[in-house]
Task: inverse folding
C-alpha cells in the first residue's frame, strides 16, 4: 500500500509543480476589477537569464496552455511579456480583464523553474488594489503607496523575493517603513510609507491584506543633478559674491570725489557757455539795421559809361552845294 501512496504523491507533485520549489517567486493571489489591468512580476534565480520565460494558464502545470513567450510575439493584444535580465524579473501585463479570465496561471522558465498564482476578476471593486502599480521616488526622500482593501486579515509589506514588514514600523534594505490603516471616505486604506530611500530600494514589492496581494514597483531616482549643482555652486560662491560686492563698494567710494569734481566742472562749463551765448544773442538784437546796403538787384539797373578826351584840329564843316538841277526857291 505504501509504494502506491508514494507513487500517487509523486504524480501529484509532478502535475502541480508546487510554487517556490523550483526557484521562481511571485505573488500567490491577486484580485482585479472587471475591465482593469495588472502587471505580474516573476523573479527567477541567477543562471536563468538566457532561458526562455513564458506564461501559461491551467490548474496543472503539465497541461497548462502557453499564452505568451519571451522568444515570440503574443497572439493576444491584451497580453504582453518583458524580461529584465539585470534584475532577473520577467513581467506579464494583462489588460482589459474579463470575468472568464479568472483562474490559475504559471510563471515558468524554460529549464523547468515554475510557480503559480490565482487571479480573480471581480464584478465590482477588487478586494485589494492600488491606484498605480508603478511609483517613483527620489534618493534620500520618501514614497507613499495606498493599498485599498475591502477584505480582512493580517497586513504586511514585502519585497519580492525578500523579507516583509508585518508591524506598524520596520525597515527593508536600509529604508524605513511605516504602515498605517485608516478609513477614508468609507474606504479602508493601508498606507505604506518608505523613507530614506536608497538606489538599491528600486524593485518590486507587494502589499498584502488577508490572503490577497498586490504587486507594486518602486523606482528610486537620483536627485536632479542640475538643481544639486546649482545649489552647491550658489553655496560655494556665496562668499565670493560678497567679497566682489565689497570691492565694488570700495571702488565707488574712492571714485566718488573725482567724479563729483568732474561733474561740477562740466556743470560750470555748460553754465558759462549758456551765458556767453545769451549775451551774444542780446548784443545782436540791440544793433540797428544797416540802411546803406543795397540789394544785389539794384546793381543790375546801373549803367556804366567811359568818357575819353581826344586832342586834335578842328574839323571843317562842309556845307552842301546847290544842285543846278534843282529849282531855286522863289523870293516871293
Result:
Amino acid at each position: 500500500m505504501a509504494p502506491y501512496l508514494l507513487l500517487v504523491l509523486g504524480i501529484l507533485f509532478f502535475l502541480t509543480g508546487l510554487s517556490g520549489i523550483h526557484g521562481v517567486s511571485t505573488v500567490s493571489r491577486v484580485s482585479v476589477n472587471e475591465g482593469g489591468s495588472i502587471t505580474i512580476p516573476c523573479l527567477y534565480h541567477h543562471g536563468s537569464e538566457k532561458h526562455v520565460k513564458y506564461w501559461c494558464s491551467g490548474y496543472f502545470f503539465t497541461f497548462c496552455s502557453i499564452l505568451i513567450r519571451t522568444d515570440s510575439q503574443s497572439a493576444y493584444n491584451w497580453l504582453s511579456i518583458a524580461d529584465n535580465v539585470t534584475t532577473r524579473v520577467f513581467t506579464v501585463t494583462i489588460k482589459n480583464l474579463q470575468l472568464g479570465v479568472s483562474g490559475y496561471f504559471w510563471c515558468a522558465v524554460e529549464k523547468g523553474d515554475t510557480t503559480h498564482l490565482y487571479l480573480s476578476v471581480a464584478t465590482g471593486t477588487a478586494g485589494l488594489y492600488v491606484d498605480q502599480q508603478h511609483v517613483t521616488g527620489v534618493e534620500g526622500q520618501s514614497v507613499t503607496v495606498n493599498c485599498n482593501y475591502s477584505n480582512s486579515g493580517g497586513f504586511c509589506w514585502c519585497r519580492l523575493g525578500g523579507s516583509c514588514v508585518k508591524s506598524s514600523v520596520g525597515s527593508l534594505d536600509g529604508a524605513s517603513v511605516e504602515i498605517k490603516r485608516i478609513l477614508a471616505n468609507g474606504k479602508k486604506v493601508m498606507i505604506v510609507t518608505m523613507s530614506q530611500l536608497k538606489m538599491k530600494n528600486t524593485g518590486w514589492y507587494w502589499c498584502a491584506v488577508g490572503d490577497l496581494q498586490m504587486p507594486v514597483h518602486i523606482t528610486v531616482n537620483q536627485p536632479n543633478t542640475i538643481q544639486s549643482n546649482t545649489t552647491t555652486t550658489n553655496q560655494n560662491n556665496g562668499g565670493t559674491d560678497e567679497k566682489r560686492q565689497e570691492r565694488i563698494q570700495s571702488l565707488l567710494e574712492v571714485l566718488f570725489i573725482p567724479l563729483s569734481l568732474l561733474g561740477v566742472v562740466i556743470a560750470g562749463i555748460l553754465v558759462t557757455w549758456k551765458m556767453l551765448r545769451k549775451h551774444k544773442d542780446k548784443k545782436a538784437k540791440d544793433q540797428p539795421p544797416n540802411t546803406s546796403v543795397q540789394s544785389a538787384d539794384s546793381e543790375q539797373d546801373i549803367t556804366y559809361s567811359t568818357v575819353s578826351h581826344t586832342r586834335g584840329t578842328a574839323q571843317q564843316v562842309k556845307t552842301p552845294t546847290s544842285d543846278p538841277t534843282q529849282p531855286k526857291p522863289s523870293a516871293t
The radius of gyration is 57 Å.
